[in-house]
Amino acid sequence: MAVTELKESSKLKLELDGGMDGDKPIVKSKTYSRIKVDAANENVYEVGKSLSALQSMPLLKVKKVEEVELLEE
User: Fold this and answer.
1) What is the Cα 36 distance to its own chain's centre?
2) d(CA 4, CA 11)
3) Do 63 and 31 touch, CB atoms closer than 8 A?
4) Where is the DUF1659 domain (predicted)?
5) Radius of gyration for the chain, computed over Cα atoms and rounded to the nearest angstrom
6) What DSSP element (H or E) covers 27?
7) Is 40 left (phi over 0), alpha (psi -120 to 50) or beta?
8) How does residue 1 score in pLDDT terms, banded at 50, 70 and 90?
């Protein structure tokens, strides 16, 4: 049984440093949807870095979240 994937959507997620709550770090996130599913990882990362410069909190991580449908051939 062969299974193929069909990319349905991609999102860019920025994880930001929201400070500390006692001894626990606070992680805030911002998600940007409708990213092209065929966008190169390098391009998504660069856009994430650029958008993080507009935020008031320091950037922790840039993530690309993909939703795929698995199809049986």
Assistant:
1) 12
2) 21
3) no
4) 2-71
5) 16
6) strand 24-35
7) beta
8) confident
Tokens of 9: 């959507």
Identify residue 28 by its one-letter amino acid code: K
| Spatial contact of 60 and 28, defined as CB atoms under 8 Å apart | no
Q: Which residues of 40-68 are buried (b: 16+ CB within 10 A; e: fewer)?
A: eeeebeebbeeebeeeebeebebeeeeee
**Quick check: 40 pLDDT over 90?**
yes
CA-to-CA separations, 56 to 19, 28, 60, in angstroms, rounded: 12, 11, 13
Report which residue type is found at 9. Answer: S
